[in-house]
Design a protein that fits this description.
The protein has 37 helices and 25 strands. By secondary structure, the protein is α/β, with parallel strands linked by helices. It is elongated and about 100 Å long. The two termini are 55 Å apart.
Length: 861
């Protein structure tokens, strides 16, 4: 056994021991509590629900992974109240802020949702309405499954829509087709007289039963299409119960626009189609439902696929076409997109020109059928399928058995409203048709299930999604980041606003799951379900194609956390292939330290990277990436950083620390964009009062939660006149709530913050971060509110105060990182200064950029 192998085994043993120790510790603490029975009961509820994703939770919250505790128990006891998400969908913070009764009860938000909230109709996240999800996907309702559980287990992978961003519980339906005015038909008749007509080789057959607006919109779209293929429009009036519609169809016949067949009695869809297909025995046919709308040269493109050898049927993409549906496959897509359907068809025609995939069955809403196929295997089976549903599937199964192929045309999109003309008997006919179909072809459902699982048409849908991004903005910048939120997300939003003013859109790429090379692409409120789980590498061809189609002209990497580290080699390759600039911002010290924040086993800042010290720390304390050699780590990141155009640090302090590890690389200081700041402390301290110290936001371990716990214990033991007010939450809430000198207000909406700060009447803000932050948005928030601020003397939080010449700062000695008494004594010692300088004023001018000034461009690229 080599020394390297032995080291790996020893590291694995060490990791497993730490995991066991961490799990035992948190469980012993839980079982020692008086409510241990309810804890076990709730733990089992969460475990069985499938709504807690342990791997995702560890990847999302590095502090939890670093403490080696049971993630589910952590979420149950503290994570939920801290606003942490148990999975990518359920939003604990939003649920608590939206349901104040739940927040006041102290109950875990997901436990409440499962026990009460779902049944009461409470939504689990912004943009997700359980009621609308069931209405939108009737198969889920029929299965009787809880909507959020369905989405996480199946819907997300199937590309079903989570919700409408920013509009919780609201779907925006597309406008319904409308019949054109009378003049439109006369104009069409005149224009078609002058159109050259060759030998007709195809009939477009439209069976009609009812639906004034749908039917006439359909016929108008076919008549006004721009194709060159000579064709005849054959309409079958199946004894329509709408006399007005019957009269209009006769009028169109008399204008020479259509050939009209009228059934004396209602024959149903199948017999109506067979009657029309027998009208011209030498022609191919295209069956077209009367609730469809076609665009452009749709017929030319559809028929082009039918010219290939042994192609029996061809079906286009549509809003409502089961396995041929778009944007979500296997479902109805009635919501309005950001562009019209004609524009969407043009996108399909452009990005998928001439491309198709073989499918197990065509879909009868719009289906080309070759005459040779009909001559060989016969028409629809009228006896077996009666009034419709299943007849085209049966035909396609017979075709496949005879050696014919069924194709999905990747370059045609047809809108299909669904079930309008023959809607009255739809449910019964569908059920009976499926019974006959599965009886004849026992493997049919397995074939469909396997096709859906393989998803061979995914690349066709993905191209369309990507092109829609460029349809909104021709030029877009790609932000690559993690899924952890926080200051990185805020910074990207600020940069997106800057780019927007230059006419450049923002596209985001985040890992689909922890430590993978697959990512989710998003762009504002665009519904892009097919850009979830996009493979980024090691083969970069698809990623390059999709990013090019999306109009990406610039790539800005904000974090590699959560990704497979091979991304460090892949991103420069992608940028080089696309010939676009690649930039990087240091939001943390991941490039220097695999533990990200340079925090050692004591829980505080280690002082910086040193080879021997770092390797010992990695072996002893572990890290999210399994790194155990700091030289290899620096070589890997250095290789990536050497290939980027700009290396940006938000503060001079961060830039200096990065340069210490990578002295050969230029690192530019680029402070984050900020609005103007000016404020006045609402509550000056007065003699005789307890000093009320504000802690704002999410106070986790790297933000100083350990210091706060120890300082609060010290204050309580010594009975000192100091109180801590946490406006937000910590990862030690359970301990802190038992301390009478601590008040925790809980999660809050940003809009409520000014009122909360006014109500709590704090005198001083403490930012107890135990690592040198690269920027610190919390500092901006407390300065905006006009608070004096206490910080440790390192990092951007310190540098910004010094450079601004802020006169109301309290600089905590470094000894306070390990000695809570030092912190408390320093805070109490500041009272006289606070009293002498009551109502401090502070102002910071806005820090603004344009796209060109932020990214250092002299001219547009």
């Amino acid at each position: 056994m080599s020394l390297l192998d032995f080291s790996a085994i020893r590291a694995s043993w060490s990791l497993n021991l730490r995991l066991l120790k961490g799990h035992l510790q948190i469980w012993l603490e839980a079982l020692a509590r008086g409510d241990r029975v309810s804890i076990v009961r709730d733990y089992l509820l969460l475990y069985r629900s499938g709504l807690f994703d342990e791997r995702w939770y560890r990847g999302q919250y590095p502090d939890v992974a670093g403490r080696y505790v049971d993630p589910l128990l952590h979420y149950l006891l503290s994570g939920g109240q801290e606003g942490r998400k148990p999975d990518p969908a359920f939003d604990s913070r939003w649920y608590l802020s939206r349901n104040r009764d739940v927040a006041a009860s102290g109950m875990n938000p997901l436990v409440h949702y499962l026990r009460h909230g779902a049944a009461e109709g409470r939504d689990p996240a912004p943009g997700f309405s359980a009621r609308d999800y069931l209405a939108h996907y009737p198969d889920v309702a029929a299965a009787g499954m809880e909507p959020l559980q369905h989405y996480l287990r199946f819907g997300r992978e199937e590309g079903r829509r989570f919700g409408t961003p920013g509009k919780a519980g609201k779907w925006r339906p597309a406008a319904k087709p409308r019949a054109p005015g009378d003049d439109a038909w006369t104009e069409l008749a005149q224009s078609r007289k002058n159109r050259p007509q060759g030998a007709i080789s195809v009939d477009v057959i439209v069976p009609v039963y009812r639906g004034w607006h749908d039917t006439l919109a359909c016929l108008h779209s076919v008549l006004s299409s721009t194709g060159k293929t000579p064709h005849e429009i054959v309409v079958v009036d199946d004894a329509s119960p709408e006399p007005r519609l019957t009269r209009k169809l006769r009028e169109l016949r008399d204008l020479g626009l259509i050939t009209l067949l009228e059934n004396e009695t209602n024959l149903g869809f199948v017999r109506s189609c067979n009657r029309a297909m027998n009208l011209h025995p030498s022609r191919d046919v295209v069956l077209l439902n009367s609730d469809t709308v076609v665009y452009g040269d749709w017929l030319d493109r559809l028929l082009a696929h039918g010219k290939a050898p042994r192609v029996g049927t061809v079906t286009p993409f549509s809003t409502n076409a089961t396995i041929c549906s778009y944007p979500v496959s296997n479902g109805d897509n009635p919501e309005r997109l950001e562009l019209g359907y004609a524009a969407l068809d043009r996108i399909f025609a452009s990005v998928n020109r001439g491309q198709s995939v073989e499918i197990p069955t065509g879909v009868g809403f719009c289906m080309f059928i070759a005459r040779e196929l009909l001559n060989e295997i016969g028409m629809f089976d009228e006896l077996a399928f009666g009034r419709g549903y299943g007849e085209e599937n049966d035909l396609c199964q017979r075709a496949a058995a005879a050696g014919w192929r069924n194709l999905l045309a990747g370059d045609v999109f047809v809108r299909h409203t669904g079930g309008v003309s023959f809607a009255d008997t739809a449910l019964k006919a569908r059920s009976e048709g499926m019974r006959v179909l599965t009886g004849r072809y026992p493997r049919y459902t397995d074939e469909i299930r396997n096709f859906v699982k393989r998803n061979p048409a995914a690349h066709l849908r993905r191209r369309a999604d990507a092109a829609r991004v460029a349809g909104r903005r021709k030029r877009n910048i790609l932000f690559v980041s993690h899924t952890w939120g926080g200051g990185v997300d805020r910074h990207m939003r600020d940069l997106a606003a800057i780019c927007e003013t230059a006419g450049i859109g923002a596209v985001y790429l985040r890992p689909s799951k922890p430590h993978a090379l697959a990512g989710d692409l998003s762009a504002g409120d665009l519904h892009l379900p097919n850009l979830l789980g996009v493979r980024i590498g090691p083969d970069i061809d698809e990623a390059v194609e999709l990013l090019t189609l999306a109009g990406i002209t610039h790539i800005h990497v904000h974090s590699i956390a959560g990704w497979d580290l091979k991304l460090l080699e892949i991103l420069p390759r992608i940028a080089a292939r696309m010939e676009v600039p690649l930039d990087f911002t240091f939001h943390d010290y991941m490039a220097v330290c695999p533990r990200i924040n340079m925090i050692d086993h004591t829980g505080v800042f280690c002082g910086g990277a040193e080879r021997g010290k770092c390797n010992a720390c990695l072996r002893k304390n572990g890290n999210l990436f399994g790194a155990n050699d700091i030289d290899d780590w620096h070589e890997r990141f250095g290789g990536f950083l050497s290939k980027v155009r700009l290396r940006l640090a938000p503060s001079g302090d961060a830039a200096r620390r990065i340069r210490q590890t990578f002295p050969a690389l230029d690192v530019s200081v680029r402070p984050h964009p900020e609005a103007a700041v000016s404020g006045r402390a609402a509550t000056p301290w007065q003699a005789g009062e307890h000093l009320r110290v504000l802690l704002l936001g999410a106070i986790l371990r790297h933000k100083g939660s350990e210091i706060v716990v120890k300082a609060a214990d010290y204050v309580q033991r010594k009975k000192l006149p100091l109180d801590f007010v946490v406006v937000g939450y910590t990862d030690r809430d359970n301990e802190l709530r038992r301390n009478k000198h601590v008040r925790i207000t809980g999660v809050y909406a940003q809009a409520d913050l000014p009122g909360i700060l006014e109500r709590e009447k704090c005198h001083l803000a403490l930012i107890p971060s135990v690592w040198p932050e690269t920027y610190c948005y919390t500092l901006s928030e407390v300065l905006l509110a006009g608070f004096p601020v206490a910080v440790f003397p390192f990092g951007a939080q310190y540098e910004r105060l010094v450079e601004a010449g802020f006169q109301h700062a309290v600089y905590l000695p470094r000894e306070g990182l390990h000695d809570p008494a030092v912190v408390v004594d320093c805070l109490l010692g500041s009272r006289s200064d606070l009293a002498a300088k009551a109502n401090p004023e502070f102002a910071q001018s806005a820090r603004t950029y344009t796209y060109r000034t932020y990214y250092g461009y002299r001219d547009d690229f």
